[in-house]
Specification:
The complex is a heterodimer of chains A (530) and B (340).
Chain A lengths: L6 H6 L2 H7 L5 H8 L9 H16 L2 H9 L6 H8 L6 H22 L15 H7 L17 H32 L8 E5 L3 H9 L3 E6 L3 E6 L3 H34 L1 H26 L6 E2 L5 E6 L2 H9 L7 E5 L3 E5 L6 H16 L8 E4 L4 E5 L4 H4 L4 H14 L5 E6 L7 H15 L5 E5 L11 E9 L19 E8 L9 H7 L4 H10 L1
Parallel strand pairs in A: 4-8, 7-11, 7-12, 9-10, 10-11
Antiparallel strand pairs in A: 1-3, 2-3, 5-6, 5-8, 12-13
Helix pairs in contact in A: 3-12, 4-12, 5-7, 6-12, 7-8, 9-11
Chain B lengths: L2 H7 L4 E6 L6 H14 L4 E5 L6 H6 L6 E3 L4 E5 H5 L4 E12 L2 E10 L1 E3 L7 H14 L3 E6 L14 E7 L6 H15 L6 H10 L3 E4 L4 E2 L6 H11 L4 E6 L3 E2 H7 L9 E6 L3 E2 L2 H9 L3 E6 L3 E7 L10 H11 L4 E4 L6
Parallel strand pairs in B: 1-8, 1-9, 2-4, 2-8, 9-17, 12-14, 13-15, 14-16, 17-18
Antiparallel strand pairs in B: 3-7, 4-6, 5-6, 10-11, 10-12
The chains are: A alpha/beta (530), B alpha/beta (340).
């Protein structure tokens, strides 16, 4: 992405916000998103295909079903990696592979049920053979256990183990009952009895019993515990031996399954990336629907036409302040477009909106407007006054020049260059000269350059398209006082109107100053200088 | 009625087992309940409150001794603990909840054996896990709660609790009785009247309630520091003081000399929020302070371990008799010497 847009550009057109809001569910989806590359000039057909997938999922009822499946998908990359490195997978990992296979099977069914003409969705590869290996009893449950069915030997070991355990229990119970009866004492859960030392006769009696041993002693009491008989000892040894054998057998079984998983690892991995791809497309569909975005028309011609365009971040910010965002129409049909007009007339907002829509389209997303037709770019640049570089210590002019240089360096390729008030902070004479020269240079390039300016005569050129903000909509004879500068927007008409050879740029700055309540004396004085 | 029958009879879905100290016999209690559940045909699930960085304890087995689980039980434990277990289990779900010991896994026991249990760390996660254990078929879920992690097994999450206490608390049997009785008293305080409870649920902040129903929220950062401020705000019109969070000795001391003490009720969130010295607590009560709770904790039983690992022990019958005398109405069980 860096090569396509600089970090500053991403921030200034609020693409970081957009990217954050597109939220795939699975880790594979997030990976697909992070690795997404912009569609560039020449890839128009590919992008159209991508759009058809986004559109399909907006319309398809299967989207819900797939989302439900995606919610259960876990990241098994590490497990696959371990299998590939000949590690023996543990039960939890085998459980996760089994569940993954079940989900792939389910999702595959849903995907195959989708039939839309000319729609080429990536396809999953179910692995029924591998699944059967993880469900040897054919239970069709999404749980996992090293089932008895894995081997005859395992089944036998376990049967014998159970029997041995049972015999031990019976024998122990017999001895316990016998001792309790014989000595009239009560043994606890740990088969222990605590006897006070004052009961000398009892102690003597118990000491003689071969089935008891002293397990502990203090100054008051002696703790007796049941001594295992030889028979029990032998049974316990057998039990331990069986346990070891069982574990060995289980290990072998896990080893076998792990090898099979390794043999299918490339298909498993392919499936994870298909899931990621679908997940990312659905995330884009969800976002398009949420933001009322539309599919843009992609063309090879050097144009950008937007009807009712919105910058989503700005719209969101304004919504929090309960201010309505005014959608803007633009139709850029020359290589260089100048936006002129009133201060506070939304010129910078329009630049950000254009940048955002172009970037979103490039990344295969629907765009927030009513209609859009545009071409693909190799690079997108924006330079605005509140650029982050200023925080890094560069002056406004310094930051502008650095951005401009970068844009011009790449202008041999198709770029979208957005410049806010070029050299606006420097002296008007030089500022005008630089702006005019940049315009002259860029109008010969296969790029779209949009710049906002206050200088007269920059747009006064046959090869330059001039869009003007309609400006304040108050009759000259009326006086309006506002208490907060935010209220200016109530009287502002943000629409952009194409004008020709207009050397007279509207002077709304004074009107706004007047509305905001600047001393009349100053206003009157200023009017004299105009 | 045996303890397990009471549990079955009342359909308690979640029960926490809280040990008042290490070696108070919590594990023995749990093992006892498992055996009883097996005998009485109650399908149970178990988990425990995990703690961050517990792995070392688990390796040395000082903190969480393994529990013997039987076929058909449901268990939620961290992956590392699970893979070390001797019991054979069927994996039902990987919860996505992570702990220092790995992800919490929900299993069904296929072959009995010992297993180490290290469950979720947070209350929300615990609630989820207990819910899943029930979902898979556990009729009652036991939560092995740690004394310093009471919040995770607090009454917000469980229906009832069992307190494990024992000789380890003190060489002086009186102290053991006193500490245990204090805990039970705090847990089972009278619940505040519904209309007042509603008011405090709404404010959800430490505040003072007046006769006319108005509340006053003092500007304090912590209760420990806020005692003085609250003390000055209490007047003849004050009826209740609700404290959200911990009640500590310094806090109570600040209220000690308040002349309106007899006229007010101190309302706490629940008994696990009381961390006061017993003497300070008793002094305030002597002076006429009435304490009530927002959430009464249902104490089902107190289990005793008369043996201390330090080498001394009390006579089982004596301990049990004396405990029964001060905690009348609560079931007392010496699980170490044989249970019911």
């Amino acid at each position: 992405m860096k090569n396509f847009m600089t970090e500053n550009t991403i921030k200034n057109i609020n693409f970081d916000y957009i990217f954050n809001e597109v939220r795939p569910i699975t880790e594979y989806g997030i990976k697909a998103k992070m690795e997404a590359k912009p569609f560039k000039k020449g890839q128009e057909a590919d992008l159209r295909e991508e759009f058809s997938k986004v559109r399909a999922f907006i319309e398809l009822r299967q989207r819900r079903e797939i989302i439900d499946i995606l919610r259960h998908v876990k990241n098994i990359s590490e497990t696959i990696d371990r299998a590939e490195n000949n590690q023996v997978l543990d039960e939890v990992e085998l459980f996760e592979i089994k569940n993954f296979l079940i989900l792939v099977e389910k999702m595959n069914k849903v995907l195959r049920s989708i039939s839309v003409e000319n729609l080429k969705l990536p396809q999953l590869t179910p692995l029924p053979h591998l699944y059967e290996l993880l469900d040897p009893a054919g239970e069709k449950l999404n749980t996992f256990y090293i089932y008895d069915e894995y081997s005859k030997r395992l089944k036998e070991i376990r049967k014998e183990k159970r029997l041995t355990e049972k015999n031990i229990r019976i024998l122990k119970k017999e001895i316990k009952e016998e001792i309790q009866k014989k000595h009239n004492i009560k043994l606890n859960l740990k088969d222990e009895a605590i006897i006070s030392k004052s009961e000398k006769e009892k102690i003597e009696e118990l000491n003689k019993d071969n089935n008891l041993r002293v397990a502990g002693e203090n100054y008051l009491n002696i703790i007796y515990k049941i001594r295992n008989s030889h028979e029990i000892d032998n049974l316990e040894k057998t039990f331990e031996k069986l346990t070891l054998e069982e574990e060995e057998e289980e290990y072998k079984i896990r080893q076998n399954i792990s090898e099979e998983i390794k043999a299918h690892s490339h298909i498993l991995l392919k499936n994870t990336s298909v899931i990621g791809e679908i997940d990312y497309i659905i995330a884009k569909s969800n976002f398009a629907q949420k933001t009322k975005s539309v599919e843009p028309e992609i063309t090879g011609d050097l144009v950008i036409t937007v009807k009712g365009g919105r910058n989503l971040k700005l719209e969101e910010t304004l919504k929090e302040k309960q201010i309505e965002y005014v959608p803007i129409d633009v139709s850029l049909n020359k290589n260089v477009v100048c936006i002129t007009g009133a201060n506070m007339g939304g010129k910078t907002v329009s630049l950000r909106m254009i940048g955002q829509i172009a970037a979103m389209a490039s990344f295969g997303m629907f765009v927030p407007c009513e209609y859009a037709r545009l071409c693909l770019f190799e690079h997108i640049y924006i330079s605005v006054g509140d650029d982050q570089s200023i925080e890094k210590g560069l002056s406004t002019f310094g930051a502008e020049i650095v951005n401009l240089k970068e844009a011009i360096n790449n202008s041999s390729q198709r770029c979208l260059i957005l410049i806010d008030e070029l050299a606006g902070g420097t002296n008007p004479k030089e500022g005008y000269a630089i702006t005019k020269a940049v315009v002259n240079y860029l109008k010969k390039k296969d790029c779209i350059t949009v710049l906002t300016t206050h200088y007269d005569n920059v747009a006064n050129d046959e090869d330059v398209q001039n869009l003007q903000v309609k400006g304040l909509k108050i009759p000259d004879d009326r006086t309006i006082e506002i208490s907060s500068i935010d209220q200016v927007q109530k009287y502002m008409d943000y629409r952009l109107i194409e004008v020709k050879y207009s050397s007279d740029i509207p002077k709304d700055a004074l009107k706004i100053a007047k509305m905001a309540g600047i001393h009349e004396e100053i206003i009157e004085d200023a009017e004299r200088y105009l | 009625m045996r303890l397990i029958e009471t549990i079955k009879h009342n359909n308690y879905e979640t029960i926490s087992i809280i040990g008042l100290a290490k070696n108070a016999g919590k594990t023995v209690t749990l093992n006892y309940l498992i055996e009883e559940a097996f005998n009485f045909n109650l399908r149970i699930g178990i988990t425990s409150t995990g703690r961050d960085g517990e792995s070392t304890d688990l390796v040395t087995q000082t903190e969480k001794p393994p529990i013997f689980v039987t076929e058909g039980m449901y268990v939620a434990t961290a992956k590392k603990a699970l893979l070390l277990s001797k019991a054979k289990t069927e994996i039902l779900e990987t919860t996505g909840i992570t702990t220092a010991m790995g992800e919490v896994i929900i299993v069904r026991v296929r072959q009995g054996g010992y297993i180490q249990i290290a469950g979720p760390v947070s209350g929300t996660d615990m609630k989820y896990v207990a819910g899943r254990l029930k979902h898979y078929g556990a009729e009652t879920v036991f939560i092995d709660g740690a004394i310093d992690r009471k919040a995770v097994s607090s009454p917000v999450i469980t229906d009832a609790c069992i307190i494990a206490t024992g000789a380890v608390l003190s060489r002086d049997i009186k102290k053991v009785l006193e500490k245990t009785a204090h805990t039970v008293e705090c847990y089972t305080l009278k619940e505040v009247d519904a209309p007042v409870k509603e008011i405090f649920e709404k404010t959800d902040k430490t505040c003072i309630l007046k006769e006319d129903g108005s509340t006053l929220v003092p500007n304090i950062k912590t209760n420990i520091m806020g005692g003085k401020k609250i003390n000055t705000l209490i007047d003849e019109e004050t009826t209740h003081v609700f404290v959200k969070g911990a009640i500590t000795s310094p806090f109570l001391k600040d209220l000690k000399d308040n002349k309106y003490l007899r006229g007010i009720k101190l309302i706490i969130e629940d008994g696990t929020k009381i961390f006061t010295d017993i003497n300070v607590w008793n002094e305030l009560k002597r002076k006429g302070l009435k304490v009530e709770t927002m959430n009464r904790i249902n104490v089902l039983a107190v289990t005793l371990n008369p043996i201390s690992p330090a080498g001394y022990f009390f006579d089982s019958d004596t301990l049990k008799d004396r405990m029964e005398k001060i905690l009348s109405g609560i079931k007392i069980l010496d699980v170490v010497s044989g249970g019911e």
